[in-house]
Amino acid sequence: MTIRNTLQDHGQRYRPRMASLKKSEKVLLEMQDPKTGLKSQPQRLVITTIPHAITGEDIIAWLADRFQVNTQEARSFGSMLVAFGYIYPLQDHKRLVIKPDASLYRFQTPYFWPTQLLPVEDTDYAIYLAKRNIRKKGILEMHEQEHYNRLHKWMNHKWDFIVMQAKEQYRAAKERKKPDRVVFDCQERAYWVVHRPPPGTVSAMDYGLDRQIDPNSDEAATPDFYERIMIFTQQSIMRPRVKSSVSIGALVKYCATYNNHDPFLSNCLPSNPWITDDVTFWTLNMPCVEIPTKMRVERWTFSFAELLSDTRGRDDFRLFLKKEFSGENLAFWEACEDLKWGKAASIKEKAEHIYKTFLARGAPRWINIDGKTMEVTVKGLKHPHRYVLDPAQTHIYMLMKKDSYGRYQKSPVFKDTVKKAICPDEHRFSGPQLEQNYKKRRPSLSPIILRQMEQEQRAKMAANIDITQLCRFTTPVPHLAVYSGFTDYPTATASPSLTFLAHTPACPSPISVGLDSTSVSERRVEEAEGDGNPAARAPVGGNVSRSRMALSLRRLLKGGCTPATMFASLSPKCHSAAGTSSRIQPIGPDQPSQAPPRRIGNFFQIKVDIPPECRIYPIESEDEEEESRAAFRGGVGAKEIICPWESLTTHNGTG
Amino acid sequence: MGKDECKTMLDALNKVTACYRHLVIALGSTSDSQNLREELKKTRKKAQELAVANRTKLTSLLKDKSISKEDRAEYERLWVLFSSSMELLEVDMKRSLEIGQDFPIKVPTRHFIQTGMTGSTTTVAARAMSVQNMKYEADSNIDTVDLRELQSEITQVTQMMEEMEMKVQVAPWAVEAKQEAGAELKSNMSVGNSSVGVISICEEEPKEEEGGGSRDSGIASVCAVFVFVVILASAGILGYLVVNMS
Questions:
Q1: Do B113 and A107 touch (CB under 8 A)?
Q2: Where are its TM segments located (chain B) (predicted)?
Q3: How many CB atoms lie under 10 A from the CB of residue A26?
């Protein structure tokens, strides 16, 4: 059984409809009118004279007159007609533009007009190439030769037919008179320039992907059909509506921001590889390049999402967070992404690991999320699925966005990157150089290899943990190494009451709009925590950095270390931290009257003291402070971090 | 032999397909006319006759279970040739229907596209019909009448092709071509090559052709100049001697 063409091609109904084609045909027909149309002149060649040649300036003038537009617009309209192939240039046939001078053009015969009803077959192209081969006695242009070889390989079964048909068509063409033969050759060549563009050009008939279903096919009126309609209408009622002024404003803002960064709308430096075949642009913008380009760095300032989505930007941000000792936020966020996008089989394992590393009490890289979210998350982790960590991830994302991102942009890390960013010069290639570039193009690395390199790098990062910070039980798990790369400063607090921020629950995505009110909510939280540590709270106000300190401070104080301990641990350790600590408000005498801490949550300390019996991956630092160890031993020692759903005995029974 | 018959018939079908394509290309342009429509109709009819004949022959050959493997491979190759021809024919017929509908002959407000082709296509049609001269006998409303016929013929052809696919079990991708790449260059067309090669397509190519030609003619002219100079020199020397002598 032969399988001819399984995809039933109903022409325009499957492909994105190009309405401009039908309209252009009408214009073409108008141009043919002997009275009101274009005036043509004969083209004089060496031996023959061929009629019906039109000049570019005539076309533009006629279009401007007919449609009452200015010359510029008439010119671009004319270029469109040439690009589609309705009119073809007689000189410089590879450049499908209209020149506003006396260069000659001719109309294309209707058979060769672009149409979406019937696809342009490779068989026809092969026949054309074979004919051209005969005519040129074997000397084809380079890209034609490439196509020829490729078609010979892939259409081998039809090759006899192609050769036979090419010869016959060649002979049939010779039956006509000389001028007609010339015209026919021109026409065919012009047709194939449009549909198989030579290198360095694009075809105007590129319409993107085909649709898979026929949108005009009749659908049977089954109950299922109506059910789908009902669901659709219900959902569209529930969809939040945005005012058009707002949405249009957003569009305008987006266009204005990204206009210079779009390689189609403006020049991309040094040159657009798709046009000049020179890949400098891609090598300069690789994901893990040392020195990014200025444009790239500028994009990082547009939004936090841009910064995170760019690998290099994320690296920079990670470096900054490392200096600020809050790298666990980014690590947690990355871990959640890994969970969301990873394999289904590994979800359970990853979720457990994340809990043990980030969420549990006493976790080595504990992140700071509010109690309600923590409750929801822990409950969800009993039956983990892909999106179980979404609320927590959103919270952390917004935290980073509102807080760290702003500071990052003012930080010396970022300023340094900006200063070092390069701005390459624009390439100016001449014609022969472009041909050279075309010859030298090579395919890029296979995505399989790229993925392997990525994984190797992750494993390296995981293995690159500071050895002194590892306890002998630590064994980095490779596939989970994405976030154990930089081991940052654990803040293991024991406090059960994690009422830090009353988080407006369940923001479904980090990008949701409603979080403009975070600062307000923070303020609300302040009031709610009135029974907590009044003095410890730095007024949030609009002061992002101070709220950051406030958070850490709160954590500190919930950990319940004495100010003496805290300051003592501060000074020898991190000078940067010490520097920032000067911004902390003086801590009042009313220290937390909460339960004595299980463990010390000493934010500014690099290390954490966890007894060796612990099953998690404890991270020790170089020097151990006496006070902390003493204080620690005061707490409940030998407590393992076990996921609460694993055993009921070690559930959150806190004092 | 069945195979040779098949081959000749396929060649004929091939020729008719090629000519039909040429004729359809001329549709709608300034070389269009009533004659062209008639030519199209006649060529089409011939193509259909040939197609039916080919199909019956090939199906009977392929249905025969008692043929050898090489024979079968050969017949499959011929079958692929036949079905590719039919595909081209079908596409061309659809196009001719579409263009024929868009460009009716008799309507005075409808002008043909000034493509630069002004000659007639009689010779092409004559080649297709394998006759010396074409006779035109159709009436003036051929375009509208013909189009209706054309529509039914297109459906016939599509049906035939679907039938062919269902009934004949040939895997087209398994067929190996006998011709290798560049086979079209090795042909007995030496008569045609040189004459076409001289024609220049557009203003660009004349430069190429002239460049090539001038290289040869340059050598010739250099030789001629050299000979001329030699003759002049010898004439001068002789004249000088004569003058001196006298």
A1: yes
A2: 219-243
A3: 9
